[in-house]
Amino acid sequence: MSLREAVIYPRQMTYHIALGNCAYSSWSLRAWLLFEKFGIPRKTTWVDFGAGTSTEDQLNGFEPARTVPAMRTNDGAVISESLAIAEHLAEHHPDAGIWPGDPCARAVARTLAAEMHAGFSALRSFCPMNLYTAYENVDPPDAVLQDLERLERIWDMARNGTQSETPWLCGPYSAADAFFAPVAARIAGYSLSVGERARAYVDAHLSDTAFRRWRAMAIADGKLLARYEQDFTTKPWPGPTTGSARAIEAKGSENERCPYSGGPMTHFLETDGRVYGFCNAFCRDKTMADPEAWPAFIALRDQTMATLSR
């Protein structure tokens, strides 16, 4: 297991998942959210889309999977479809809330996730997910506009049918919302026109701290792949403004151990005039990308400020 894997999830693992590049792999984002949002322990292997070898060749131990995400259970079963992963996790973690508790809402959520899993090919093809950048002045073809119309229709039907009073489709955040997170990234990232209610749902995803952590990891990873770039005018990412932080060389910091791994500190950042240490560059850089997305860092920062104010 690499240092990056150990640092992100240092606790005892139950599942082993293989995921692709955070910036580009939309299906990996869906699977990761199923674990992250519902607090399910896992060990992670990262497949490098720019490694010069195929995804399948990098999935040793996950046969017969050919693509990411893929999951191996404790008993050795390999599950390589996101919808199947969601169902397996829901079956084995019935109290996690992966699907809504209400039977009617659960039926709606499963229907939405299944349609997302199988459909919207025009949108997915024309707007490959790219969390490094955002575009404007995009003129989508009719097939993409039809996909957007369908999305708005089923999102409205879900919200109305389940009487959801949350930002999410079927009440509390569920697997259905995890499946639509990359769609929200596409709508925002390509400046696609949707109605006010759909825009609010997109904004809920962009503001969600788990989604922000995934994007922060993409930025920290920094592996730009030219084949995903589009010939559109770029603009700043439309999500929440992140806090200001910068990497520095330092010999001391507010903390004695990395807030994620508890390991010794080798890399440092400065924010709000305070210096914090981390056990490697990735821990520092993911925090630097979006300090407000990381509960462990927020707790450290707040504890430091509380101590200073005494």
Number of domains: 3
Give the overall average pLDDT. 93
**Strand order of the biggest β-sheet:** 2-1-3-4
Unreliable spans are 1-13
Number of strands: 9
Sheet with the most strands, sense and barrel status: 4 strands, mixed
Task: Summarize this structure briefly.
The protein is α+β, with helices and mostly antiparallel strands. The protein has eleven helices and nine strands. Strand 8 and strand 9 (274-278) form a beta hairpin.
Molecular structure report:
The protein is α+β, with helices and mostly antiparallel strands. It folds into 3 domains: 3-96, 3-Layer(aba) Sandwich (Glutaredoxin); 103-212, Glutathione S-transferase Yfyf (Class Pi), Chain A, domain 2, CATH 1.20.1050; 241-308. The protein has helices at 3-8, 26-36, 82-92, 103-118, 121-126, 142-162, 175-189, 196-207, 209-221, 281-289, 295-308, and strands spanning 15-19, 42-46, 70-72, 78-79, 134-136, 233-235, 246-248, 267-271, 274-278. The strands form 3 sheets. Strands 2-1-3-4 form a 4-stranded mixed beta sheet. It has a 3-stranded antiparallel beta sheet with strand order 7-8-9. Strands 5-6 form a two-stranded antiparallel ribbon. α2 links the parallel β1 and β2. α2 runs parallel beside α3 and α4 (103-118) packs antiparallel against α6. The longest helix is centred in the middle third of the chain and has 21 residues, at 142-162. The termini are far apart.
